[in-house]
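Retro notes, item 3 of 5
We never archived the inputs for the D-malate complex last cycle. Fixing that now. Sequence and ligand:
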Amino acid sequence: MVDVRRVVVADPIDAAAVARLRAGPCEVDDVSTDPSKLAAALPTAWALIVRSRTKVDRTLIAAAPHLSLIARAGVGVDSVDTAAAGERGIHVVNAPAAATASVAELSMTFYLLLVRGLLPKIASTKGGRWERGTSGRELAGRTVGFVGYGRIAREIARRLAPFGAATIAYDPFVSAAVDGTAIVPFEEVLARADIVSVHAALTPTNHHLLDARAFARMKPGSYVVNVARGALVDEAALLEALGSGRVAGAALDVFEEEPPMNQALLEHPHVIATPHLGASTAEAQARAGANVVDEVLRALRGEPLQAEVPPPGGTR
Ligand code: MLT
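Structure as it came back at the time:
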């Protein structure tokens, strides 16, 4: 056993949260500014705090024999091998609600930019042209179809109501309407939505959920928004759907590979691309840091955890 429980901060998190951790009953090894130091920190790590840069795979877990807790300062745990952690009895926690408002706001921004046709207008005006005339449509009267209806999509639906937009959703884990959003089959979201907005967690079974077949079933002239995980959307098929006009525009905060390499997609005049910043507001990062530090401090004191992610098939 290591004498003092050591908490390794592998990725940058909110500074105030790290300061609070330093005042706790532990030693803090903050290697976030120099990832090359992580390997040396793992053998004595009791807890590990990560964002998405550090991939907590089986090899990393094996290199940390005293690890008891992995704290993900964010929502998605696809960068953590929860099965390998579960086999060792390592607890995994996340910050499930920290970024809800930030991602909801980013999604709303994307809807408005896309539906109003603003991207080409901004580019042409900044390029010295003055292209007036009818531009886009109103969000009022449009239907937003969510793929995945968890915390973030529900928050967006709540915020869309005063805009006069209708909402429908597909979610294999939700069967009844929630707050006025009908739960419908995947195909119906594709057929009815003016905007297909992706909010599902990435799992081993939903890679390329939006593929060529799905795009072919979408309403002609509809839009795609992905603020969840890049691998949920087949980027090559999306580019083709943009080319054919089936999809009129897309807003992507996440990519199959990050940073993205698909230059044709990035440069497409009807594609908005941002660098996976949905959760990167000051507020969301302060909450994410505070939430995971709270969990680490609870674990250090032997108190029950509040945001534990069960291992696959587990109920922890
Ligand atoms: C999340 O899962 O919390 C977001 O994608 C943000 C992040 O990975 O940092």
